[in-house]
Amino acid sequence: MPDPVVLYQKTGRVARLTLNRPERLNAIDDEMPGEIAGAVERANADPEVHVILLQGAGRAFCAGYDLKLYAETPRPTTGSQDMPWDPMTDFQWMQRATQNYMSLWRSLKPTIARVHGYAVAGGSDIALCCDLVVMAEDARIGYPPARIWGCPTTAMWVYRIGAERAKRMLLTGDLVDGREAKAMGLVMDAVPEAELDARIEALLTRIASVPKNQLWMQKTMVNQAFENMGLAGTQLLATLFDGMTRHSPEGVAFKERAEQIGFNEAVRERDRGDPLGWKNR
C-alpha cells in the first residue's frame, strides 16, 4: 500500500495533518484534496481535539498542483479538455477540490497552517483556507498561474488583504516572502525558520487551552461575516474562471508549450516578465 498523501497524528489536544509528497514538494495530486477533508473530518469527530495543525513534509508546505503531470500529459487530460470544452466537466472537478480545501475553513475546530519553503498556486489556496497562517520569513507565497492557466478558486486573497493588494498579487502573479506577507496582512505571523516550530507550538498550546465550544463560536462568528460578504458566490465565479483560463487561446497555447519543452521551462517563460508570446492579447 502506498503511503497516505496526508498523514494524521494526534498529540494531546492537537491534530497534526502533514501533506506527504515531499519528493514533489507536496504538489497536489488527485488524492490530496479528499484526504485533507477526510483528515479534518476525523479531527472534528474526536472529542479530545481542540485545534488542527496543517503542515508539509520535506522542503515545502505545498508547491501547488502537480502540473508537471497535468500540463505535460497530452490533452485531453485532467484540467485540459479537447476543444470545444465542457465547462461543467471542469467546474465539477475543481469545485470538488475547492470544497475539500474549504473543509479547513468550515472546520468546527480552528486550523493553523505552518508554511515553510513554498505555498504557491493551489498550495496558497490550501494555506489561506486555514484560520491562521504562520510562515517562515524566507518562505514564499503567491499565485503565479494568475499570469496564465489559473484563477484562485478559493478567492481568499481578496478576503484576507482587500481589493487593491489582492489585485496587485493576482495581476502580477508575484511571490512574496513571509515578511512581506505579514506586512500586508496576508498571514498572522512570520518568523525565522529556526523559530517556526516554537512559534507554532506556543500558538497551538494557547488555543488548545480554550473550550471547544468557545473556539467554535468565535470562529463561526468571524466566518459568517465573510459569508455575508458573498464568499460562496465569489468562489463559484472564481472556479468557473479557473476552467476558462485553461481553455482560453492563451491557456491552450501554454499547455501546448508545456508539452513541447516541459512544464518547468514553460513556467520560466511565463513568469520571467517578458510579454507573453503565446497568442498574446
Please trace the helix and strand order, writing H or E for each element: EEHEHHEEHEEHEHEHHHHH
Structural class: alpha/beta
The main sheet comes to: 6 strands, mixed
| Annotation field: number of helices | 11
Overall geometry: globular
Q: What is the alpha-carbon Rg in Å?
A: 18 Å
Uncertain stretches of 5 or more adjacent residues: none
Count of β-strands: 9
Structure description:
The chain is an alpha/beta fold. The chain has helices spanning 32-45, 67-72, 87-106, 122-128, 156-172, 178-183, 193-208, 212-228, 231-247, 249-261, 263-271; strands at 6-11, 14-19, 51-56, 111-115, 118-120, 132-136, 140-142, 175-177, 189-191. It has a six-stranded mixed sheet, sandwiched between helices. Strands 5-7-8 form a three-stranded mixed sheet. The model has no long low-confidence stretch (mean pLDDT 93).
